[in-house]
Amino acid sequence: MIRKCESSDLDTIFEIINEAAVAYKGVIPDDRWHEPYMSAEQIRHEIKDGVVFWGLEQEGRLRGVMGIQDKGDVALIRHAYVLTRFRQQGIGQKLLRHLEGLTDKPILVGTWKDASWAVSFYRKNGYCLVSEQTKENLLRQYWSIPDRQIETSVVLASPKWAGGVWMK
Question: Model's pTM, two decimal places?
Answer without folding.
Answer: 0.93
